[in-house]
Write a structure and sequence with these properties.
The protein is of the alpha/beta class and about 325 residues long. The chain is built from ten helices and 13 strands. The longest helix is centred in the first third of the chain and has 22 residues. About 50% of the residues are buried.
Length: about 325
């Protein structure tokens, strides 16, 4: 290994964004450490999908165990820490509010403290989210100046983590930044998320493995982009001379209904309405009806713009799931 190579610790390495970020960092010459919990059988499928499993060094740690985070940071003293770990499914956060708070809020405090005391030159990236805005709205869009009004335990915990990240920057002069990412998807998106649930369901219907696709609110609108594009924005934030917070999105939004229509179209299935069932079980206690970014700052300061369009994203995900079920 090149002794001068930068080192990065990525929490949440087994999720969606972790593998895309790991691939990017490895291509840039980084030594990447991926933090995983002590599973009896870790699932490396997402890393395998991008061909980077054998290029990542794995370390054990848990966002709810401060001592493990201290030990990891003190041992590695990485140049950069990307905190992507979270209880990331908004829908589950009402049933698991305590766990969501422990991982998404307190876990960030533990990790920041570990950096402050044992590796203060380490740069820190916090994966913040558009769910923090909730009902916050500025002329139909959200940017860095929009008021937070979270509508879920997930969003609330992320607001805590956001402000703690800002606070450590302002109080201790640490390099800490927030990436306020709007919805970003990919072929390795978790199956419980609505976009992947749609493309997986469409593939199953295409090959006769299912007859129906059950969904919640078809009218909810989101600003959807490609995860592979968004990790580039994360990286660029960490290369700035001064730490700052950035909204990352496409600047346009689409309804769940539009996503469904396109997915069925790309799979060559007509009359999508006869396959889709609205199930009240999938509706949230408090809904966020519309999110749309205003990514002016990230365009100007980081010179970042998404490369994958909404239509291209849907087709990419449909094609991947059709391939998965082709020989099922």
């Amino acid at each position: 290994m090149n002794r001068m190579a930068k080192t990065a610790l990525v929490t949440g390495i087994l999720g969606q964004d972790g593998p895309y970020l790991a691939k990017l960092l490895i291509e840039k010459g980084y030594k990447v450490f991926g933090m995983i919990r002590r599973y009896s059988n870790p699932n490396y499928d997402n890393l395998d999908y991008l061909g980077v499993t054998k290029k990542v060094d794995f370390v054990e740690g848990d966002m709810t165990d401060e001592s493990s985070l201290i030990n990891t940071v003190r041992t590695l003293r990485p140049d950069e820490v990307y905190n992507l770990a979270a209880q990331s499914f908004v829908g589950d956060s009402w049933q698991m509010a305590k766990l969501t708070t422990e991982v998404n809020a307190l876990g960030v405090l533990y990790l920041l403290n570990a950096i402050k005391f044992f590796s203060p030159t380490t740069k820190f990236y916090q994966a913040s989210t558009s769910e923090m805005f909730g009902l916050g709205n500025t002329n139909g869009y959200q940017d860095e100046n929009t008021t937070f009004h979270p509508r879920s335990p997930y969003g609330i915990a992320k607001v805590y983590a956001y402000w703690m990240t800002v606070n450590f920057r302002e109080s201790y002069s640490l390099f800490t930044c927030n990436g306020i990412l709007f919805n970003h998807e990919s072929p390795i998106r978790g199956i419980q998320f609505v976009t992947r649930k749609i493309t997986d369901g469409v593939a199953r219907i295409k090959y006769g493995l299912s007859k129906k696709l059950s969904l919640g609110n078809l009218d909810a609108k989101r600003d959807w982009g490609f995860a592979g594009d968004y990790v580039e924005a994360m990286y660029r934030m960490m290369q700035q001379k001064k730490p700052d917070d950035f909204v990352v999105g496409t600047g346009e939004n689409h309804s769940v209904r539009e996503f469904v229509e396109l997915a069925f179209h790309y799979a060559g299935i007509s009359n999508w309405e006869k396959y889709v069932v609205t199930d009240p079980r999938f509706k949230r206690p408090a809904e966020v009806y519309e999110l749309k970014s205003r990514p002016t700052k990230v365009h100007k300061v980081l010179e970042w713009k998404p490369k994958v369009s909404f239509k291209k994203l849907v087709k990419m995900m449909v094609d991947a799931d059709l391939k998965r079920f082709e020989y099922a």
